[in-house]
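so im writing up the methods section and need the Ferritin record in one place, dumping it here so i stop losing it
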Amino acid sequence: MISKKMLKALNKQLNFELYSAYVYLAMAANANTMGLKGFSNWFHVQFQEELFHADRFYNYILDQDGEVELEQIDKPKKEYKDAQELFDVSLEHEREVTRRIYDIASLALEEKDHGTHSWIQWFITEQQEEEANVKDIKDKLKLAGSTGQGLFMINTELAARVFTPPAVP
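--- predicted struct ---
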């Protein structure tokens, strides 16, 4: 059984993962509007990943005999000036997710909740990968510029991304 404080933190993160999905869905729509279908695909896959993460929090809360508390989801920003801004905002967002995941891990240690501490490690590794992937795309955009052949090549690369639910312990 988890503490009330931990339950509150897990529910807060569940809701933030749902908000994250919403953010990425809005980004996918905006990239599509810009004619960047590959970028749109990348963000749509990110949307699916965030839903997967939310589902993991949902199930963990229930497995710990906790009560799921769903909150209202804030409206995300819907317009971005270009692909670079999309990925600048995406990296900022992923860093916020990482900070929140670390806070849950720290709380688990503080409360000697070894089960939650063990469980949250998957998310810590996932966040390292998420940030690295976004930084890689930002670096490519910086090299390629926001128009022309370089942008076309990155758009083509991002179009190939597919969602594959990760194997989880």
